[in-house]
Design goal:
Elements: E1 2-3, H1 11-24, E2 29-34, H2 42-51, E3 74-79, H3 88-94, E4 98-103, H4 109-119, E5 124-130
Parallel strand pairs: 1-4, 2-3, 4-5
Helix pairs in contact: 2-3
Amino acid sequence: MLSAEPDVSTDAISRALTDLGSRLSGRPIEFMAALDVDADHLPYLIARLGAAGDEWTPSAQPFASASWRRPITKTIVALESPVANPLALPVALAADGIVLCVQRGRTQLESIRDIVAAIGAERIVCCVVLD
């Protein structure tokens, strides 16, 4: 979840989406708040998103059968706007997809275009309009 504006939090809607997804999905879904991303935590966040779909092999787990795989955990991350913190952009690019959050009557169309240009239109799964 990515906000198009610097002062709009995606935390509450990200948590709600995690709760709903956990009830509807057969796979584990976790929530992660990535607010105030700094250079020290950036590699961890990117690695965490990239590791979510990794599979364990029998050689990595000697007691596991050849057909066993680790459950694929999906992670929903609440990110601040790249306008507020440019380090949010690499985290967003590491995600499988982006849900862009905008505020009705407040978010400027130019801000949305800037975010779409930075992220790439193909990476945006949907847009949520908040009141």
